[in-house]
Amino acid sequence: MPGVAAHVLSMAAVTAALTAAPQAARPAAAPGEARTPRPGQAYAGMGALGRSARPVNTTKVPEGHIGGMDVSSWQPGVDWAAATARGARFSIAKATEGIAYKNPYYAAQSRGAADAGMVHGAYHFALPNVSGGAAQADYFIANGGGWTSDGRTLPGALDVENNPYRNGLDICYGLSPAAMVAWIGAFTGRYEARTGRRPLIYTNYSWWRQCTKNDKRSAANPLWTARWRSPTPAPFPGGWKSAAVWQYDDAGLFAGDQDAFPGDGDALRAFAAGPET
């Protein structure tokens, strides 16, 4: 597919530029406003789906949860001690995107979270139009997305959401629901085969219903759901009955996006140590 090859080449070229220069704060956008990022600039929540009209939650973590955060190259310098003091107990950093981009700040972000005593993990921003799911799982694992059962490392996360680049494609990257389900299965199957752990799946209710026809087969994987400025993380897509991680806002107490884990620190460490049953 010549179009895909050209896209991969452009991704590689932009990666070098992104690595060389720190990025500014990510651009603000009104709810529903389309952003047009450069390759590599996508992040968890880029699709801005699942946002309500409620104001930003800047004062507290949702009741019954402990606080966390997710970051990408839009947060090159994080005050990890300050985040811990405010209540953050875990962090998930973007490691990779597609098969040509590596977050140049990932190593420092992962180390900073670990040094601050946080449970930490990594996520991969999926580009299903660029390559197969298994290839992207391999790229993710090779560049920070692995897992170890030390109780401090979260399983890697697959971020599948609204296509932010479009490139003449729809929000489902030009894939049919059946093809998207197969792509996700290829990624998650390869990740589990290589690490012994099912990855988290980051998504939102609207995208999952449209792009997979609300497929239920992925519910064996733990869910990281995006539902901003809502009193609860529900409703859940597919066959999920609960969320392991809830991205509840795109700004607030901590740098980056705001996340919550249901339970206490012991439960979080037990989840990290896994595997889930």
TrEMBL record:
<keyword id="KW-0732">Signal</keyword>
<keyword id="KW-0326">Glycosidase</keyword>
<keyword id="KW-0378">Hydrolase</keyword>
<protein>
    <submittedName>
        <fullName>Lysozyme</fullName>
    </submittedName>
</protein>
<dbReference type="InterPro" id="IPR017853">
    <property type="entry name" value="GH"/>
</dbReference>
<dbReference type="InterPro" id="IPR002053">
    <property type="entry name" value="Glyco_hydro_25"/>
</dbReference>
<dbReference type="Pfam" id="PF01183">
    <property type="entry name" value="Glyco_hydro_25"/>
</dbReference>
<dbReference type="InterPro" id="IPR018077">
    <property type="entry name" value="Glyco_hydro_fam25_subgr"/>
</dbReference>
<comment type="similarity">
    <text>Belongs to the glycosyl hydrolase 25 family.</text>
</comment>
<feature type="signal peptide">
    <location>
        <begin position="1"/>
        <end position="20"/>
    </location>
</feature>
